[in-house]
Structures are given as structure tokens and as C-alpha cells.
Amino acid sequence: MENATAAPPIVTLKNVARAARLLKGVISKTPLLLNLGLSRAYEAQVYLKREDLQVVRSYKIRGAYNKMAGLTAAEGALNVVCASAGNHAQGVAYACQLLGLKGYIFMPAQTPAQKVDKVRLFGQEQVEVILTGRTFDDTFKTAREFCDERGSTFVHPFDDLAIVEGQATVGLEILKAATTRIDYCFMAIGGGGLASGVGSVFRQLSPHTKLIGVQPLGAPSMQRSIAAGHRQALSQIESFVDGAAVKCPGALTFELCRELLDDVVLVPEGQVCLDLLKMYNEEGIVLEPAGTLCISALHQYAEQIKGKNVVCVVSGSNNDITRMEDIKERATRYQGRKHYFMVTFDQQPGALRRFVNSVLLPEDDIIHFQYIKKNNKEKGPVFVGIEQKQAGEVDGMQSRMLAEGFTYEYLNDKPDFLSLLV
Fold first, then answer.
1. What is the C-alpha to C-alpha distance for residues 378 and 375, in angstroms, rounded to an integer?
2. Catalytic positions
């Protein structure tokens, strides 16, 4: 991607510095910490910008507060409205409490109670949470209509210059805290507000730094839009990395990211799960999937970053504990150690014994087995889940099934169907 230098920057250092002054006493100046484990693994100096330690556990308060603090008294009297399933909602709610503004926060109807409760906690009596819509797009549409009817101010999660300038203060803090040249900076991208803001600051103060945007493989809206040369709305996305699952980038953020970024990489959701668990187990750091994206992107840049100084912006840690089983499940499947099949069994004594003795290895573990014997039928389907000790052993298992006369359908590559069973 070419970095234009002729036109004056849209995000100016003057405005970012003003946003930083506004945010003084509101946010935490989160630390930039050298991570020894990642540094050793990649033979680099890997620093984490710990936005997961922010008061609302994500960087989103920066943009929300900067936008809302800039409203006139007349605009503030007409209230603010936002649509969000998580971190942006908490940022807006907290800003409402601090600024004494009335806010209407629209969240999808199926939002977990834990997230709704956090929004109410941060907003206290200043906010009203409205649960509506089956999907985020439905919620967003309803919120905009409500906002327009009342003449309120809509606080967009990313496509607003004041939001971008607020997020840009992350970049200012990184460069003030850094004691050495920064060669690479990795930033998660959902709608692009963080990457636009941080990227703008780096291009003006540290132009040599390679700026890498990171998106989940199942929601590559910015990556595809930049490749196409214009914004593209994806018809369908994988919502697992919910903090970065956006169907279409913003008009402003698309232009900025296209101009500023050196690359946008896509990270498989399974890799995110593996790294999220590793950061928790080995580092004691609790992250949300979107907050893990930049760390997961290091795998793809392992050769380029050797011997370099690298910053990963850890964007948030609002992870619901009830998701951990799903995260572990996805991680193990991604490692190639957990496999699911629909196997056709003969309905006669000894079929299961033959399957266990002749198909499975001694260390294979049956984690799912669902079989209902049907009268007057010679064969019946069985849903089987197997966890193996080592990756790469599934091919041998499949060969042994065929050799023993078991026909089967492999289900790992059918996630929609598998989600109904697991």
C-alpha cells in the first residue's frame, strides 16, 4: 500500500494532543510493557500496549469521551445515542456518567446479561439500555432512526473524526513511552477507528514504522475493501471475534487505513483461541478475542520481526467467562486434535467393540458418542467426537475406518452443522 504524503493529514497532531488533554483524569495512561514470553518466542522485543487495563477494559472510552466532550450545550441537551454489542457501549455509558449526558444505548436483544449489566454500571442513572434487534445491523438501524427522530447526536463506534482522534491518543502514548525505535506496530481492525488514529500519529512522528492492521479471517471487511480499492460490505461474517466483526468499514476509516497501513493480515479464529488461552495460562493476562488479534498476527510475521522492536496494541479484555468452553473447543479443533464424524454403524453386537479396538489408537479419547438403535434397520448413524493426543493422526483414523467397513462423514469442516451438535 502506498503512503500518500502530499495532502495534509486529516488527523492532526494538534487535535490529537487536544484530545489527550481532554482525556486527562478520565482514562488511564496504560503501560507499554515488554513481554518476555513473546519476545523469546519470536526472537524480537515485543511490547504490549495494555488497553485491556483501561477503566472500561478497552480503548473505546477514548473516542467516545472525546466526541461527547466536544458537544455544545444545545447538542448535549438533545442527548446521545449509540449502537453497540459491547466495548463501545461501555465507553459511551461511562462518558455519559462523567459528562452528565443522557444516553440511549441500543444493544442486540441476545446480548449476554453480563455485558448489559456492565453498561448500566458504567452509565448509572445517565443511560437507558434498549435491547432490540436480532442482529447488530438491525440494532444499528433502529438506533439511527431513534436518533434522527429526536434530533440527538449519534456516537458512531468508528466512522467519525472525533472518535478517530480520541483513539489516536493510544499512538501518542506509545511513542512517548517508547525508549527505542519501533519497527512494527500491530493494530486490530473492526471498523478501523483504532488503526486510523494510531496509524495517523505514527505516520507523522515515526514514519519508518511498519503499520500492520489485523482482522479475523471470518470478517475481512477492511482487507477486502482495500484490495478492491473501494469499500465493500460483506454479506456474511463470522461473529466469534465480536469486537472486530464488522461487515463494512467506515467511509473515513477506509480512506485513512488505505493510505496509512502497510498491510492488513487475516488471523484464523482458531489461532486467536489458542493464543488467548496461552496468554491466560502462561502470562496471567485475560483477553477478549479481539484483544488477542495482534498477538496472533505475530505468527505470520515471525521472520520479518526477528531482531526488531514490535508493539502490539492489546485492545480489550471484556471476555465473558461462559465463552471459555467454546474457546477451548475451537482451539483444540484448530490444533487438529479434536475431530467429529457421523459414522455408519452396523446394528449388531460387537460393532462398537470393533470400532474401539480396530479404529482408535490407545490414547484416543471418545468425547462424544450419540447412537440410537432403530428397529428393522441394518445400519444406523452415530455421532462420534474423538480427541487425539497428537495433531496429524486423523488421516490414519480415517483409513482404519474405511478398512473396517465404517462409512463416515467428516464434520469439522461443516461448522454450521457441527454447532447444532456440540
1. 9
2. 60, 315
